[in-house]
Amino acid sequence: MQRTDAGEAAARLDALERAHPEWRLWAELLRVTFHAAADPASDMLRPDDGLYLSAPADPLLHGREVRVDAGRLERRLEQLGELVGMGRLAEVDVLQLALAAVRQDGAAIGRAAHASASDPGVLETVVNLAVWPLLQACGRELQGRIPAGWAQGYCPVCGAWPVLAELRGLERARCLRCGRCGADWQRPWLACVYCDERDHERLGSLVVAGRLEGRMVETCVSCHGHLKSHSTLLALAPPELLVADLATVELDLAAWERGFRRPPRPGYAISVRLTRAES
Predict the structure, then answer these.
(1) Are 45 and 68 in contact (CB under 8 A)?
(2) What is the tens place of the pLDDT at every residue in 150-206?
(3) Average pLDDT of the residues in 114-138
(4) In the Cβ-directed half-sphere of 253, how many Cα atoms lie within 13 Å?
(5) Are the C-beta atoms of 175 and 168 separated by less than 8 Å?
(6) What's the CA gap between 200 and 83, in Å, rounded?
(7) With CB atoms 3.0 to 4.6 Å apart as the test, which of 217, 237, 243, 272 could cross-link to 206 if both were Cys?
């Protein structure tokens, strides 16, 4: 069962901002993003049911066509861009930019940044947040179709690596969560998400002593990957996943200092089409 109270995520975000005033901009970006995703009009962003998986390891969005409210998407980009001081993207096709974000194609976003004289890192952050409501709509539509026994470490819906692992319930089942589409799937305890290493001597964990109780970093010395984990009774709602990710930056820093990194590329580069469905 997943927690659904949006107010809880908002309260946690407010508390984080009070504790870390330097995160105010991030908090504002997330508030705008969550508000957009909560708008019922976002539900019109749905994958076409007429398409299907071509192989067992393909994420559910692979090969599909997604109808996008392009006007709403462009307004989200402008609103988020204003918060970070980014100018208008006059020379960029907004739908192509959104497609690059959905596919996690950093090179294409970098080319768009060059064409619009924007900072590549800032543009990537903004466009990824702008497509979050779209991916959430797809995730809601497809969560129930995730194949039983999905064996991959990457998201069964959009192909992204999980943002964190939930150690859920009294039995502490290891459930992986996608921070982009909100998908939820299980993996064995002794298995690296990225390279599937299963030798317990090559798998480890990091904790921050006396801080972030119930949270740690899973590590793998074979691929040098790391993944944060979070103990919870119920599955976190999608907005809470992003808030939890922000609240545990300290764990990322601890992992980076020891040479562990998340893979720079997605687990699966999906092929997907975005078509206009103007409001």
Answers:
(1) yes
(2) 989 999 999 999 999 999 988 888 999 999 999 999 988 889 999 999 999 999 998
(3) 93
(4) 6
(5) yes
(6) 45
(7) 217
Distance of CA 147 to the CA centre of its chain: 20
Say what the pTM is: 0.90
Contact predicate 27/17, CB 8 Å: yes
How far, in Å, are 20, 159, 219, 264, 268 from residue 196 at the CA level? 36, 16, 12, 17, 15
Type and span of the H or E element at 15: helix 6-19
Amino acid found at 120: P
69 contacts: CB under 8 Å, gap ≥ 6: 41, 42, 44, 45, 277, 278, 279
Mean pLDDT of the chain: 88
Residue 167: per-residue pLDDT: 92
CB count in 10 Å sphere of residue 120: 15
In the predicted model, is pLDDT for residue 5 greater than 70? no
Asked if 22 and 39 count as a contact pair (C-beta separation under 8 A), the reply is no
Neighbours of 172 (CB within 10 A): 13
Joined tokens for residue 41: 């009009």
pLDDT more than 70, % of the chain = 90
Q: 175 with 150: CB under 8 angstroms?
A: no
Average pLDDT over residues 32-59: 70
Using the structure block, give the residue that is written with the tokens 């504790």. Answer: 19
Nearest alpha carbon to residue 43 among 128, 138, 131 = 138
- In this structure, the dihedral spanned by the alpha carbons of residues 11, 14, 19 and 20, taken in order and rounded to 10 degrees, is 140
